[in-house]
Amino acid sequence: MQKSVGNISTAIGFILLGIMMLLRQSNIEILKNIMVFWPIILVVFGIELLIEAKRLKENQVIKFNKGFILLVILAMVIDGYYSVSDSILNCIRTF
């Protein structure tokens, strides 16, 4: 029997990602500051994994939620985009 792990982390992560996208559409520049904390998603996932491992019964296997992997990749891409765009803007300002 398989037990899925990461459903709560994925749901919370996608909700936060949606909120950040709404803020971006509203031209609120808080998104850059919030994206610094995207690794918190990994912490929540780790806590969820520990809780589920403790509840694991005999003959059960932990299966990871594929949406969580997508969420982490999206967060890394968005964070990378803002890091690169900030670096480019800083280079332009120094000229």
TrEMBL record:
Spans traversing the lipid bilayer: 7-24, 30-51, 63-84
Domain LiaF transmembrane: 10-80
Coiled coil: none
Keywords: Membrane, Transmembrane, Transmembrane helix
Protein name: LiaF transmembrane domain-containing protein
Species in which this protein is naturally found: Clostridium cellulovorans (strain ATCC 35296 / DSM 3052 / OCM 3 / 743B)
